[in-house]
Amino acid sequence: MASHRRPSQSGLTQSARVTVLSAAAATAAAAFAAPGASAAPHEPAPSGKATVDRLFEQAEQATEQYDKADEHAKQLREQVKQAQDAVARGQEKINRMRGALGAIAGAQYRSGGIDPALALLLSSNPDTYLDRAVTFDRLSERQTGQLHELQHEQRRLAQQRAEAGRKLAELERSRTEVARHKRTVESKLAQARRLLNALPTADRAAFDRASRSGRTELPPLAGAAPASSRAAAAVMAARSAIGKPYIWGANGPSGFDCSGLMQWSYARAGVGLPRTSQEQRYAGHQVPLSEAKPGDLVAYRHDASHIAMYVGNGQVVHAPYPGAPVRYDPVGMMPISSVTRV
Q: Does pLDDT of 228 surpass 80?
């Protein structure tokens, strides 16, 4: 799979993004105040916490859009390179063909003069003259065939140049889209971090404790075996990433976002996954949660904007958010939208 390098991440993006986990939110709510109970001395306003949660979720959604646009830009860069290479090869072939016809002209000159049609060919675009039947009367059958072939190659080259131009324009639009999604992610994270920093110290500490309730130590895993040897290899790879930092837009090996971890883990097993969680949820066949096996991909929220890997015993491994390393969490940490067996 892709091992493309991402834009360098700012200090903010490596430390500020928090994925909103339902379990974390519930734990945070319990830490701040039980339902129906009177407010604790340092309880943050519900509207403030809801705003933070919404910003974190929007940042993750924007990260998925960034990943998608960035992957598209990579594909376009390769397509542009191929188109430009084809143009260069086409031009080289045309140059060789014109050189061969030039040799004919030279021979004709030495024998008494250049055929007028051939002279026109070598001095301008042959299309103008090939469309005039009179020129064919002045050319041999072999020369006529060469002119037809040259005409075909020049038309094909014009198409290749036009295609390369279209790809370049599309690449520029894609780069603009990547930059736009990047600005959105950073803006959401900055807003969330400012809001969190404005909380009283006790409130912020409680929120951090609730948000970091996952484990980085290996939990006891029992029950169903992986569905395949490749799933088993992917689980081993994902576990080897435990403790690595969350970096939005990254797909390893030194850091990951949620879908980047899944892509990297299955790549270690020899399986190519798409880049985004929305695409990964369709990278296999879906199974009920009750039948989940280690290696299955668990997508969260209705839009599949977060994804994790089931490892057994009701646990998943995932890249949560900046500041929280790759870790284990309960499979029900957020509303589950699908379980996919690759």
A: yes
HSE-CB for 242 with a 13 A CA cutoff = 17
Catalytic residue annotation: 258, 306, 318
Local structure of 330: helix, strand or coil: strand
Calpha distance 151→332 (Å, rounded):
65
Indicate whether 28 pLDDT > 70: no
DSSP 316-327: EEE--BTTB-SE
3-state secondary structure of 59: helix
| Whole-angstrom distance, CA of residue 195 vs CA of residue 327 | 25
Instruction: Tell me the two tokens of residue 31.
Output: 């830490």
User: Cα(234)–Cα(225) distance, rounded to whole angstroms?
Assistant: 13
pLDDT tens per residue, range 38-66: 334 444 444 456 677 678 777 877 888 88
State phi, psi for 310 to the nearest 5 degrees: -70, 135
Q: Helix, strand or coil for residue 200?
A: coil
